[in-house]
Design goal:
The complex is a heterodimer of chains A (148) and B (240). Chain A has one domain (38-146). Helix content of chain A is 28%, strand content 17%. Chain A contains 4 helices and 7 strands; from the N terminus they run H-E-E-E-E-H-H-E-E-H-E. In chain A, the strands form 2 sheets. In chain A, strands 1, 3, 5, 6 and 7 form a 5-stranded mixed sheet that branches. A 3-stranded parallel sheet of chain B has the order 1-2-3, with helices on both faces. Chain B contains 9 helices and 3 strands, in the order αβαβαβαααααα. Chain B is mainly alpha-helical and 240 residues long. Chain B has 2 domains: 2-79, no CATH class; 106-231, no CATH class. Chain B is globular and about 70 Å long. The two termini of chain B are 12 Å apart. The chains are: A alpha/beta (148), B mainly alpha (240). At the A-B interface, helix 1, strand 4, helix 2, helix 3 and helix 4 of A face helix 1, strand 1, helix 2, helix 3 and helix 7 of B.
Chain lengths: 148, 240
């Protein structure tokens, strides 16, 4: 069994937040949609740190490339990120898609949360809704969520 | 753990009027959390788009994810048809610097010898992940502090320059970035990790550090961060 298979098995039974229903929002056709990335990779600007178990989020301009994977977990590969940020934060791929007309536009701002945060109530009730308002202010239609 | 957060955010954002597509890395968690639209990819943790420096592959993953916007009903969870697995048992094969100064602890000497490779990696990548606690100049001194702990100095008195888990990540990133320069390709997932922990002098130091911290007084509160689960001694239970 590979390392990741073991981890998936160990963590697969971890309690998850309960949602009684699944919301569904409509989006315009993808070729007309403004798309943002929200990742849980714990990205930071150089020199910034994340408090362990933070429920907050960080904001990154669409043209920012000097990003740090500040997540301290030892239990995932980091060389993929070191070699190519797009393997977790596919911002260059989105810009390609916008140039080709596959998506309408790349949002001006993108967000990162810290995916190892165990208690998710604050993300659900406070920082998550704030993030949604920020994205809607930017005219975002579709959000691509990525883990690490 | 990211799938829990990704799924939660998908629900919250969708409730606020945004359409979401989520890449998820744990299928079982995603099934129970039922985000509106999820693509499960059996890829190495840390590489949710699958293959670094492979734009065409990444675009296929994104196309599969965005196609979920056309799903007639939600929640929907689809499996990406290709799998990629980690290579934790196939350590990267790359050269280590020869012993230069026998007066130095082996790990310190080794880290100094890897500096040119690390510099090449930084130049190629245009940045570094080293710097949570120390920059590259201070990595040898940080390793010297870890040597003191491994030799019996209490971790509270070893002169650590900052938070130990973050410092250990600086050491790991320094080595893994050097490995990127020493290899002629992007290593498969966890191959550089196993090179560090199983084949280098610093890896031997980190394993010795783990053994000492596991029985330290006062107890060290961050055992989870000392060794990856995949590098724990055989039979040792996970620290969570």
């Amino acid at each position: 069994m590979g390392a990741d298979e073991t981890l998936r098995s160990l963590l697969g039974k971890t309690p998850v937040p309960e949602f009684a229903t699944t919301a569904r929002s409509a989006a315009p056709p993808l070729a007309e949609a403004t798309v943002a990335i929200v990742t849980t990779a714990g990205l930071a600007h150089p020199g910034e740190v994340w408090a362990d178990q933070s429920s907050e989020f960080r904001v990154f301009a669409s043209d920012e490339r000097e990003l740090v994977l500040a997540h301290n977990s030892t239990n995932f590969d980091r060389t993929g990120w070191a070699a190519d940020r797009n393997v977790a934060y596919p911002i260059d791929r989105l810009h390609e898609m916008a140039r080709e007309g596959a998506i309408g536009a790349v949002a001006p701002r993108h967000l990162s949360f810290l995916g190892s945060t165990f208690e998710l109530s604050a993300m659900r009730l406070d920082s998550g809704p704030r993030a949604a308002r920020l994205l809607r202010e930017d005219g975002v239609d579709v959000v691509l969520l990525t883990p690490v | 753990m990211c799938t829990r957060a990704v799924s939660t955010l998908a629900h919250v954002l969708e409730q606020a009027g945004l359409a979401t597509v989520a890449l998820v890395s744990n299928r079982e968690q995603a099934l129970r959390a039922h985000p509106p639209r999820a693509l499960y990819a059996d890829f190495p943790l840390g590489r949710p788009l699958g293959r670094p420096r492979d734009p065409a592959f990444q675009r296929r993953v994104l196309a599969a994810a965005f196609a979920l916007l056309e799903a007639p009903a939600t929640p929907v969870l689809v499996d990406f048809p290709e799998s990629i697995h980690d290579r934790v048992d196939e350590p990267l094969s790359c050269p280590l610097p020869p012993r230069h100064d026998p007066r130095l602890p082996p790990a310190v000497d080794e880290a100094l010898g890897l500096r040119p490779a690390w510099e090449r990696a930084r130049a190629r990548m245009g940045g570094t992940q080293v710097g949570r606690v120390v920059g590259p100049d201070a990595i040898p001194d940080a390793l010297a502090a870890l040597v003191r702990i491994a030799e019996g100095v209490p971790w509270t008195e070893a002169g650590l320059p900052g938070d130990l888990p973050a410092l250990l990540m600086d050491v790991r990133c320094y080595y893994e970035e050097a490995a990127l320069a020493l290899s002629d390709h992007v290593p498969e997932a966890r191959a550089a990790e196993s090179w560090l922990y199983r084949q280098t002098e610093t890896g031997a130091l980190l394993r010795a550090l783990h053994a000492v911290l596991a029985r330290s007084d006062p107890p060290f509160p961050g055992m989870y961060y000392v060794l990856p689960l995949s590098q724990l001694p055989p039979g040792e239970p996970p620290p969570f």
